[in-house]
Specification:
124 residues, alpha/beta, five-stranded parallel beta sheet, 2 helices, globular
Length: 124
């Protein structure tokens, strides 16, 4: 069983990742404030405010196979990497720019076709 932590896992994209990973049999924990919604069914919610100095203290010693970072805030990404990268075998960063097929901001929109997804477990 793969242990996956999703940072920012209660918004639309994080909840979708969590739902699919749980359906795959993964153990999933979402670290978030929980203000955007609930964690996916069967995923554990770890409440934390990532703007706080001790946001990752409760999970920093726990090892994980995968961490999926969903953030538009660079300071969240930097802080999470500093605190959690040694406890993760793999780190995946997803930002809005990752989902648009056309990266020209004048033409980007939610109706544009997205980039092809890749199953990270089949990379090697």
């Amino acid at each position: 069983m793969t242990k996956t932590r999703i940072l920012g896992g209660t918004g639309w994209l994080g909840r979708e990742f969590a739902t699919q990973l749980v359906a795959n049999g993964d153990e999933v924990a979402c670290l978030a404030r929980g203000e955007s919604g609930a964690a996916a069914e069967a995923a554990r919610l770890v409440r934390a405010d990532r703007t706080g100095a001790n946001a990752y203290r409760s999970v920093s010693a726990e090892p994980w196979d995968d961490v999926i970072e969903i953030s538009a805030e660079p300071s969240f990404v930097d802080g999470a990497l500093a605190e959690l990268s040694s406890a993760a075998s793999q780190w995946t960063f997803v930002s809005t720019v990752s989902v648009y097929a056309d990266h020209d901001p004048r033409r980007a929109g939610h109706r544009r076709a997205g980039c092809r997804s890749v199953d990270h477990r089949k990379r090697m």
